Amino acid sequence: MEPAQKEAIALHRFGVIAEAVYDRLTPAERGALVRGIAGRSHVHPDGTCRRYSRGTLDRWIRAWRTGGLSALEPAERADTGAVRSHPELFEEACALRLELPTRSAAQIARILFHRHGVRVAERTVREQLRRRGLSREALAAEPRAFGRYEAARANERWVTDVLVGPFVPHPRVETSVRAKLFLIVDDHSRLLLDGAFYAHENARACQDLLRRAIVRRGVPDVLYADNGAPFKNAWLARTCAVLGVRLVHSKPYAPQGRGKQERLNRFIRESFLSEALHQGIATLEELNDLFCAWAEQVANRRVHAETLMTPLARFEAGGPPRQVDPERLKEAFRWSVTRKVTRTATVPLEGNAYAVDPALVGRRVELRYDPEDLTQIAVYFEGRPAGTATPFVVGRHVHRAVPQAQRPVAPPTGIDFLQMVAAAHDEEAGTAGLVDFSQLEIFGADTEEER
Length: 451
Description:
By secondary structure, this protein is α+β, with helices and mostly antiparallel strands. The protein has 15 helices and 13 strands. The strands form three sheets. It has a six-stranded antiparallel β-sheet with strand order 8-11-12-13-10-9.
């Protein structure tokens, strides 16, 4: 590297840390200042925008205090001499990589050392090959061309996603919660079908928004979603199956099919969220009210640059959407779980106990219910209705005493069992020849009194 380039980099580094090098700052103030510098982008002398970590900035500050401006110049790499003295080595390295694209940089460095006796670092070989477009990833991957896709009509394909929103005060907790914006967009018209902020990113929020969108805009043919937990679960799969909607998940790490959704997300951040954060949001309900008005007045009524129509006009040009029967819609958004009936003819659900038909004790039954209304739960056994489950209440049962019939009095038999046992005992004792100590004389006594 030329001396002028080194000095330019040193001046750039000093310009980055200039605010934090003075001794008048306390450690706490310097730490806060360095963290702020690490969070900003800085224009490098080569024209690129870069960000530097807290550790890099601290190292530069220590180097400037120790050696001044010269200490901020980039250090000379150990293999720079090999790069300058033997440029033909890297031409040969390129030829070795092209000859066998799977050959690693370490193997190429070993081949160069054994052929020419010059040791080149593996990192240097890898970097030089990458700069020339000869990395193993670039040579292994085939060039791909992504085509443009657009649904042929309205409601043919819906795209759903979640956008992380601002922190909003929540009435149930003391601190604020991060609001999650669930969105559904029509691929053909680019119409923002519906959107709402929720405090939690779960399957219940996804289904609540999907039900609203279907009631307002009709039933889609395809629902396209990513692989997040709100979209990849048994409840959403059941909903789509009942409604006849094909549920499609995008490939992991392949966002090419979500371009329209990502473009709308950027428009929401620039046009709505920035204004909402500037004015301040008091509650989640207020945020949803503002977003609903913005979606209808701004997002759906602007002329799209590609379709040259407003999303609302292009959506309505296809005629009235296909609606669904209310009973079928209600059944589609029921959740279904399987439970085993206990010995007390109850089943557990959502932390509660529900009583079912006693004939189902020991059987596995299916419970279908609306997650927003746990008072009505339908019970199915082997696919057939088996009544309803009602909340189980343990009470104190008090029954009136039942009068008992008088038993008949039996005549006495005159048998005394214990006397019979005593007589048998006395008879046995007499026949054994037991000594009666009261009739014996006391031996060794001289007088009657002594006896």
